[in-house]
Amino acid sequence: MKILVIGGSGMIGGDAAIHLAALGHEVTIGSRKPPLAATPMARMPFLAGDYIAGGYGREELAGFDAMVFAAGQDTRHVGKDDDAAAYWERTNAELVPQLFERARDAGVGCAINIGSFYPQAAPHLLEGNAYIRSRKASDERVRALARPGFRVISLNPPYMLGAVPGLDPRGFEKVAAYADGKFPDIPVYAPPGGVNFMSIRSLAEATAGAIERGQSGKAYLVGDENLSFRDYFQLYFRAFGKDVEVPVIDKPHPLIGSFAGHGGEIYFDPDPTEAALLGYRRNDIATAVGEIVALYRSRG
What we know:
Helix content: 25-40%
Number of strands: 11
CATH superfamily of the largest domain: NAD(P)-binding Rossmann-like Domain
């Protein structure tokens, strides 16, 4: 199957591309810039484009059997002079469905939207959070485009973590450095609260399962382990072989947080029938943290 992964130069899209290619699919990376040369994605065909600027027209999308969209906008992408609510409404709620419309009109048979767990797992946060509302609107408007011959499926994952060879592990590297003692000004502690975590490997498997077996028009809430932030930090110390008990202190921590707010918890159990249908592994968080620490160590 010929599959275009938009956002395939990044962590989530890149790992999905690697997994899909390993399954024998012909994968093309879609991104504004080519993947870093040190990553496995650099060996795949590349299609330059920016969906926010109207990239990926019908002619470019024609010929692909499936499209995976893993380039949704979040807090990292908002400029300091931008109106955040207006930015997310435009980039997530308006432009993502327009991209899926072009894919439909180009004859793409299946389109997977990688969204966010917040609207499904924590709907009480919708009223006060423009970002979460934009993700919900994007999800619903994309799935509304489904029709015979055009399967549309949303995968809505929680707090994601993992490591792609050759790719900067983002904030995870800071947590690894923290456990390695490289932030002496930050005492060892964790804030109260926690979330559901999922590895990029599990999500890549769910993506392949959605392409093969997912129900068109459905939004799947996917995830893996419910962990307190204390237990999450603890995994990093253990990956370094340190027998450290991380205390919980009732104050924010500069290296972690969520839209649930200080002390908030967003826990859920994925539907076991849906998890089996999509075919993704569970209990993968400790392994993912070990891979992050290994990549951190390899970078000196």
